[in-house]
Amino acid sequence: MHRAVVFLICTVLKITVNGCPLGCSCTGTTVACANKDLTSVPYEIPNSTTELELNGNRITELIATVFQGLVALEFLDLSDNQITTIQEGTFQDLPALTTLYLYSNQITTIQPGAFQDLPALYELHLDSNQISTIQQGTFQNLTALYELYLHSNQITTIQLGAFQDLPALYQLNLESNQLTTIQQGTFQNLTALNTLYLYSNQITTIQQGVFQDLSALYKLYLDSNQISTIQQGTFQDLPALNEIDLSNNQITTIQEGTFQDLPALTTLKLANNPLDCNDCELENLKLYLLNNTHLTNASATCNGTYTLVLDFNFTDCSEGTTAEQTESTTDKLTTEIISDELTPEGSTARQIISTTDKLTTEIITNKLTKEEGTTAEQTESTTDKLTTEIISDELTPEGSTARQIISTTDKLTTEIITNKLTKEEGTTAEQTESTTDKLTTEIISDELTPEGSTARQIISTTDKLTTEIITNKLTKEGHRLVTVYIVGTVGALIAIIILVGAVLGTCVILNRMNLKKKSRIEPLDRINRRQFPAMPLRHGGHIK
């Protein structure tokens, strides 16, 4: 009867029996209250306790200061309960606590300051809960924290500053959450971080500089996400990084320089990604893998096949690369001319174009400087000289404009040939001048007739060839254009000869017209002389 009364009093007042909480077992400084169906933390836990096991119960709430006075406590296990919130000051005044288990609860919110005043905390388990947001200051002042486990939650947001003041953090586990992106600065100042787990999330994009300043990072796990693109510079300034796992993502190509400046990298996993080996940019990955022999474990296969990127033949990309370089050079010169920011080569091009424009204007407007003694022979001599220079590609300073002059010549030739002028008697230089003025108007107003469009196309082709000659990077198409170029030159000369012949023909026609006129007058003169012969006069002489 006496014992029953004592037991009843102890149960109601929740006091200890022989220094051990009711329903718990105590061994030395270890208090074991696991799987006792408790709904709250028992009272009167001995202050000398170093290990407290409260896992596997039905505890729903942790009252602030519930662990107050346990200055010797080093290990606390609260896993497998029904705790939903951790309030500020819950673990206050536990200066010796090194390990805290809170996994497999129903925690949704951790208030900032919940883990304050835990200077010795080394290992913190918050995995397998329902946490959605890591707030700023949640883990502040945990200067000794070495391992932090936050995997298997519902985390979608990590606020900037959430991991600040963790100078000793060595391992951070964020796997199996719902992260879609990671902001720059999220892992700032984690100078001791060695291993970072981010696999099995929904990450699609990693912003440039996310891993910046992680000078001690050794292993990085990003597998089983939705990553499609890795921005250049994502992995910069990671001198200790030894392993990257990017397998089971949606990566189709790897930009050049993505894995540069990683001197310690030995393992690169890219398996089970839809790597598009038809994309020539992926050749950069192959070259990287070939040139970095320290990579002992590198796996990357082409999409839908078992062919390794290392074994894929990228020879089809060579010609395309040359063409791209030529196009790039052309674009560069075009940009320089438009923006007037010329390199030395661009300055030369501008001078050529400027000189050509001047000569073209003179040719089109037919306002050439006519000095005394200028003859057709001198003009023909100059033309022959320029033609020789173009064919031999040995240009004198004056001849440097030949490439553009031939463009104008081809254009005028095309207009003359296609103009289909009616060659009637009386066609004069005014008609030719009219045609020239029309062509000039078309060029200035940029409203070309079909014939003018043909000329413009010739100029465009000539410009392209000129750029290739200047940059000395001819593609196969460029070589064909050289042939066309020479044929066009010969055609231009033939056209000039035809034009001269037409002028001479006109002169001959005019000559014949004059001769006909004279031939009509002469018969009349003969008739008059026959009808009215000379008659003698009385005083001498004759009448004509």
Number of strands: 24
How much strand?
5-15%
CA-to-CA gap between the ends? 187 Å
Helix content range? 25-40%
Query: Biggest β-sheet, characterized?
Result: 13 strands, mixed
Uncertain segments: 1-17, 342-346, 363-380, 386-406, 412-436, 439-452, 469-476, 523-535, 537-544
Count up the helices.
9
Structural class: alpha/beta
Average pLDDT over all residues: 74
Q: Compute the CA-based radius of gyration.
A: 47 Å
Q: What is the 3D form?
A: rod-shaped
Side by side, the strands of the main sheet go 3-4-5-6-8-10-12-14-16-18-20-21-22
Descriptive notes:
The protein has 544 residues and is an alpha/beta fold. Among the domains are: 23-178, Leucine-rich repeat, LRR (right-handed beta-alpha superhelix) (Alpha-Beta Horseshoe), CATH 3.80.10; 320-364 and 377-526, no CATH class. The chain has nine helices and 24 strands. Strands 3-4-5-6-8-10-12-14-16-18-20-21-22 form a 13-stranded mixed beta sheet, with no helix packed on it. Strands 15-17-19 form a three-stranded parallel beta sheet, with no helix packed on it. Strands 1-2 form a two-stranded antiparallel sheet. α6 (402-418) packs antiparallel against α8.
